[in-house]
Amino acid sequence: MTGMRIAVAADNAGVALKNTLADQLRADERVSDVTDFGVPDESDDRAYPLLGLAAAQAVADGEADRAVLVCGTGIGMAISANKVEGIRATVAHDSYSAERSVRSNDCQVLCLGGRVIGPELAKKIVGEWLGYSFDPSSASAEKVAHITEFEQAAPGGVG
Ligand SMILES: O=C[C@H](O)[C@H](O)COP(=O)(O)O
């Protein structure tokens, strides 16, 4: 079995944590590929949606399996990523929420706040998050399906 392909991205508020997590992911035997959408360092002041949307689109396009996005709070990255069709993204700064984001909500994108969470806790959460998978035969699947159904029924949504 091949490993997971992970996209990472951050703005300058999240780049230090993003780079730390990218190193961790590259060293993880469960990960086969890490694609870094930037920014490379704090001198690059591109706005978070420019980075997060590109990484989320890579997941939506099947070029990556999951993404880890970091900004100051994680909130802007989550809002941005959720605008990409088929993407379910959330901020999760605790172990249980990160677990449930995958097991309950089939989220492919984990967003973290570089100004909120310390690197050691973030590394622990990301390491755990890699180990979770969504069970499409679970009771959660039909709940998630309502989101997909709404999304695909655009522009008016389901009635
Ligand atoms: O959600 C947005 C992020 O936290 C970003 O890094 C900082 O955004 P701001 O500069 O608009 O506060």
From TrEMBL:
It catalyses: D-erythrulose 4-phosphate = D-erythrose 4-phosphate. One of its GO terms (molecular function) is intramolecular oxidoreductase activity, interconverting aldoses and ketoses. Its EC number is 5.3.1.34. The keyword Isomerase applies. The keyword Isomerase applies. Pathway: Carbohydrate metabolism; erythritol degradation; Carbohydrate metabolism; D-threitol degradation. It comes from the Bacteria. One of its GO terms (biological process) is carbohydrate catabolic process. Belongs to the LacAB/RpiB family. This is D-erythrulose 4-phosphate isomerase. It comes from Actinomycetospora succinea. The lineage of its organism: Bacteria, Bacillati, Actinomycetota, Actinomycetes, Pseudonocardiales.
